[in-house]
Amino acid sequence: MFKKLPSTDIAGQTPVKSSVQRSIRASVLSxxxxxPETLEAIWPKKEGLVHVKCRxxxxxxxxxxxxxxxxxxxxxxYPTLRVLHKYPYILPMVKVDRGAIRxxxxxxxxxxxxxxxxGGYLPPPEEAVPAETPVAIFAEGKEHxxxxxITKMGTEEMRKINKDVxxxxxxxxxxxxxxxxxx
Amino acid sequence: xxxxxxxxKKAAAAAAAEAETPAAESTTTEPQQPAAEPRPPVQVLYCxxxxxxxxxxxxxxxxxxxxxxxxxxHPSMFEKYYSDEALQNKLGTLSVEAQQKLxxxxxxxxxxxxxKADAALKKKMASPITIxxxxxxxxxxxxxxxxxxxxxxxxxxxxxxFASKFATGASxxxxxxxxxxxxxxxxVSDEVLEMIEEGVGILKGIPADNVEIKEDKKKKGGDD
Lengths: 183, 224
Description:
Distance between the termini of chain B: 79 Å
Largest sheet of chain A: 5 strands, antiparallel
Oligomer: heterodimer
Keywords (chain B): Cytoplasm, Ribonucleoprotein, Ribosomal protein
Number of strands of chain A: 10
Helix content of chain A: 25-40%
Family (chain B): Belongs to the DENR family.
Radius of gyration of chain A: 16 Å
Structural class of chain B: alpha+beta
Strand order of the largest sheet of chain B: 3-4-2-1-5
Subunit structure (chain B): Interacts with the 40S ribosomal subunit.
Shape of chain A: globular
Strand order of the largest sheet of chain A: 1-2-3-4-5
Order of helices and strands of chain B: HHHHHEEHEEHE
Number of helices of chain A: 7
Subcellular location (chain B): Cytoplasm
Strand content of chain B: 5-15%
Pfam families (chain B): DENR_N, SUI1
C-alpha cells in the first residue's frame, strides 16, 4: 500500500476534532492489545492528532508530525512500523521463514507456505486469528517486526489450505511510509 | 466474526473496569491487572546508513557501509550479528544453494544501488541554477532564482535568508512552467551570485560553475 507515497499524494493536513479523536482512541483500544496507559504514553491526550489525507481515502494520523497510525477507508487502524517496533505486542504475531524476507522487503504479500513452514509461526489453534485482522509480521531469526499486514484467511485455514496469499502486506520495512519520519 | 466481537467486548470491559477504579492505580499489586504505569517502549536501534534495524541490513542495498557503520558505532551489536557463529546460525533452515543465491542477489543489488546513487549525485552536481533579472518597469527589477531545490535547499528558508540580507521582499512562487523559484525584489543578481559562491548560511554545497545570470526585458512597444 505504501510502496509509493510521493508528496504529491498528500492532499492536506487537518487537526482532528476532539470528538473524532475520542472515537479513534476507543477503536484503537478495542482493536489493539494495548493498555490505556501505554497509549497515553505514545499519544498523550493533550497532544492533538493531525489527519494527513492521502490519495484513495488513505488517512495517516500523526502526533507532533510523527506518523502514528493509518487507515484505509473505514478499515481497521494500523500502527506504523516504528510504533510497532516500540510496542511489538499490540498486534497478534505471525512469522515468515527466512526465504520470504527478501520478497517481503520488495512489498510482496505473504503466501501461506512461508507462514506454515518450519521457520514460520502462526498463533496456536486456541488463539486463532480470524480473517481480515491486522497482524504484525515477524521474520525467522529476527527480533523486530518486519511489516504490518492483514490476514486474508483465518490462521487455521492457512494451515489447512496452505496455498495462496495468507497475509496481505500493508506496510513493510523500507517502503515509503517507513521513509517518512515526519509529515 | 464472533471472535473479534468477543475481543472487542473484552477490551471494552477491561477499559471500563479500569475507569471505575482509578484509586487502585497506585496500590495495585495483582499481576493480572493492567499495569498503571505505561509499559516502556522497546528501544530499537536503527542503522545510520539504511535506517533499518541492523539485523535487516543484510537485505538492504548498502550492506558493506552498514557493516562498517555498526562496527564503528555499536561494536557489541556488530559482534552479535556478524560474528562467525551468528552467520552459522543464520544458515539454519536455508539450503546452501539458496543461501548462495541470496548472497549473489545481495551483491548485485548493492552494486546497482551504488551505481544509482552515483548517477543521482552526478546529475545533481550538473543541474543548473539560473539567476534572472526581470525588468518590472524602466528602473525597477526583480530577481528570480531557479534551480536551488536540486541541492536540497529549503526554498522557504533560503527566501527568508535573502529577504533579511537585502532587506527587501523575497518569496517562493511558481513560475509559468509550474516550478518553484525564489523571487527577490530589486536587482540583486550579482550579490546573490556572490552569496552562492561563498556558500552563506544554508546556501552550501552549490558549485558556482552551474550558476548562470540572465536578463529578461519586458517586451513592450518598440522603444526598448
